[in-house]
Predict the structure.
Amino acid sequence: MRSTRSIAILCLALAALELVWSEALSLRFWPVLALMLGFAAALAAFRSRRFLPGRTRTRLTIESWAMIAFITGVLWFTGRGLSPMFNLYLLPIISSALTLGRRVTLLQVAAICVCRVLLAAATPDLTVLSLLFAGRMIGELAPILLVAYLTSTLSADVSEARERIENLAQTDPLTGLLNHRVFNEIWQKVHAESTERRMSYALLMIDIDQLKQINDSFGHEAGSDALKLVAQCLQRSIRNTDHAARFGGDEFAVLLPNAETQVTEAIVNRIRNNVYKTTLDLRSRMIRCSVSVGVANYPKDAADVHALLSTADRNLYRDKELRRTPDVKVNA
């Protein structure tokens, strides 16, 4: 937004300088003054919070098209098809390429081509249907098209890089699940919404059984593979509305919004089965993992997030004790 504001102000300043320098203001005072004041008023309106609140893209689209219309008016008063200010069109093109994407930008390039032809047709000293004009038009439009393409490509690359950075800040780098911080933020929102709407939800705490034995027998890389395997099984087992995270170490957490007891039990069984059915290939030996799960239901088991976490942790260790196995199952 700040960059587009600067571009629009620069466009107005350069146009005003040319209109004064070319004596267009003195020759056609009122039309030129009305053009500049109208565009300045439009810029002020675009920056007002009351103008299309919450619809930033629409506001930027209108602003870029208004800039093209204003520049066309400036060219009309400064020589039409022979105006030296044709390159002013680069400003709205850069603005659109940075904020609106390639499709809108190319559409505006096409509109500029039409404006260029119409301005030339209204210029007595220019013949539109001539090779000289065609060559001149290509020479003028080629830089605009090139800037449109390069700027929109750069903008797409920057957006992709920003998305990757944001994704890295929200996910665990090993498993790809949510990290602890983001999971807690989502949990607070789900809890507040469930409290307000009197809905139930469930918290699952999940721990890999015998992970230390896997690390000791096959190395820490094998332990990392086990963590990734469980994370993939979690993603396959939960609903689209659920949230899974690596809570720390070999512990995972799953949030099940708007989940009754029956739904929670079904998802827990699905997680157990998917983990057990998915084997881990280590040094030509097949490792079959398992998980312990602790479940806490809101508001049945606890009324606040801290008590709910404590309940889920207690149930996790109770489940781990009940399901304790002497060693990891290895299939030759």
In short: DSSP finds twelve helices and seven strands in the chain.
